[in-house]
Amino acid sequence: MYINPKLEQKVVQSILWLFTLITIFILFFIIFYILRKGLPVLNYAFLTTNPLDMGKSGGIYSTIIGTIALTIGALLVATPLGVGTAIYLNEYTRESKMTKVIRFGSECLAGIPSIIFGLFGFILFVTKLKMGWSILSGSLTMAFMLLPTIIRTSEEALKSVPYNYREVSYSLGGTRWQTVTKVVFPSALPGILTGIILSIGRSVGETAATIFTAGSALRMPTSIFSSSRTMAVHFYILAREGISMPNAYGTAAVLIITILFINIISYRMMHQYIKKYS
Amino acid sequence: MANFTIKAADFSHYFGANQTLKKINLDVYQNEILGIIGPAGSGKSTFLRSLNRLNDLIPGSRVEGTLTIDGQDIYDPEMSLVELRRKLGMVFATPTPLPRSIYENVAFGPKMAGLHNKTKLHELVTDCLNKTTLLEEVKDRLDTSALKLSGGQQQRLCVARILALKPEFILLDEPCSGLDPLSTMKIEESLRQLKKDYTIILVTNNTKQAARVADRTAFFLNGELIEIGQTEKLFTTPADQRTNDYISGRFG
Fold first, then answer.
1. Nearest-CA neighbor of B163 among B205, B135, B203?
2. What domains lie within chain B, and their CATH numbers?
């Protein structure tokens, strides 16, 4: 069957264009819808007062604090572990069965559904280690979820550092540690930071893993042993229990703005990084 | 000055099953420029990288025979690689400034060795830049990125950077391969100056460069040392036919 190449080109182009349009439309529709419903509720008081009456009235202050605390906690654990693993894999060992196993393991970790992480965190931290529903349990669980992202992005960043930087450092009498800390790591830092920022976005938006481990207490957390509700969990409970749809959308709007903001920052950083090193 | 020399005795090098250097016997005299010429893949760079053990970084690298520096076995397991590499400053084929300022590039080696005194560092950095005639050109912008320098300037910066280590030997691995004739001339001029204080091994693809600056020249072919001798003699009356073929441009 003969198809006019010009016609074929046009048809294919239109179909692909339509697909792209649909994708973008869905994205903008979600953002637009949430913001339209949520922005009217948003004001200074909404951000700075604690929820009252199960969240029916009042703001979301304690959930913002809970989200920040949990995310910082998760990063404090995941960053050294993840970056350290990446440095070990990339700088301290040669490719071997062992490194392949480690890498495969971390990839598998990335594919595990977050609810499983939640369940695991609940069993290990909340009950077995008796940490209870707390920011600590939530942070540790979240840290495990973030590890693969941080390892992967850090490894990519380390790999993009030109090999001859290492040679130069060694040839100038640098030890391996000096080479890693003074030459390789600084050059890879922007890429590593991009990965960490992406993880922040993931942590802020996570529900399943945190509801099982950090719980859903609405009180202002007083320590890392307090149970706390994150914004994402707050939204879920408000919407699911039908407590207050306006407040649910308000929370969702704050969430979506935060995540957009984080993505824009990381995109910018990645861009600058690529410009600088290629 | 102590009697620093490098001595290779039946020195062989392998990458996996591949023998890249075959029983090399060679002495390097103090304060000379030894040129090493040979076609690509002749093992001349491998020899240079065996001296400061940069080949160790490559999996499957292994040596036989002995290679000594100041009477010490370079491949002695007790040998401190950090000290060895400070003794043997190396300049690579492509200019390799680190993404730091001009000043920081030169101060890099001494800082890693633990020198942090600011006045002493500054003195050392300016002195080393001066020795490579780069100081005049960059003295007003020592804190700008070294990546902004021209190729020739970058290469002289790399020479200054190894001088800051106070090495005994300077190893140059085709240092002018990517440079224009004027920059090449400046590097060669620096080498003649540096010869007074250092022993220099210059690996080069450019036979004329060896003829211009080297006191003695060695010719490598397929991992073998074919001939070594006074540069003038090697270039006018080579003992081996293969040397003659190479320098007269019949191959390579």
1. B135
2. 6-247 (3.40.50.300)
Q: Which amino acid is at A211?
A: I
Q: Could you report the predicted ipTM of this complex, rounded to two decimals?
A: 0.86
Provide the whole-model pTM.
Answer: 0.81
Closest CA–CA distance from residue A252 to any residue of chain B (Å)? 43
Interface test with B, best of A172, A179, A182 (most B CBs within 10 A): A172
- Which residues of chain A make contact with B163, given a CB cutoff of 8 A? none
Interchain proximity A171–B108, CB inside 8 Å:
no
Domains of chain A, start order = 44-277 (1.10.3720.10)
Q: What are phi and psi of B25, to 5 degrees?
A: -120, 120
- Residues A254 and A231: beta-carbon distance below 8 Å: yes
Contact A66, A229 (CB under 8 A): yes
pLDDT of the residue at B4: 59
Nearest to B85 among A165, A173, A187 (CB): A173
Give CA–CA dist A235/B213, Å, rounded.
77
Q: CB-based contact (8 Å) between A165 and chain B?
A: yes
* CA A262 vs CA A16, A271, B126, B165: distances in Å: 29, 14, 44, 44
Which residues in chain A have Cβ-Cβ distances shorter than 8 Å to B161?
172
Q: Cα separation of A174 and B82, whole Å?
A: 6
Contact check, Cβ <8 Å, B52/A164: no
Q: Positive or negative, the Cα torsion across B102, B108, B109, B111?
A: positive
Q: What is the pLDDT of residue A275?
A: 66
Compute the nearest-CA separation of B174 from chain A (Å): 15
Are residues A117 and A186 in contact, defined by beta-carbon separation less than 8 angstroms?
no
- Rounded-to-integer distance, Cα A79 and Cα A203, Å: 13
Q: Which two tokens stand for residue B94?
A: 């492509």
Helix axis angle, B118-131 relative to B151-163, nearest 10°? 130
Whether A126 and A144 have beta carbons less than 8 Å apart is answered as: no
Distance to chain A for B155, nearest Cα, Å: 13
| Inter-residue contact A142 to A210 (CB < 8 Å) | yes
Place of tokens 């020195």: B11
For residue A220, give Cα distances in angstroms to A68, A72, A217, A254, B118. 12, 16, 8, 18, 51
Is A168's CB within 8 Å of B54's CB? no
Output the pLDDT for position A278: 47
Identity of the highest mean pLDDT range in A71-75, B1-5, B76-80, B177-181? A71-75
> CA A118, CA A232: separation in Å to the nearest integer?
14
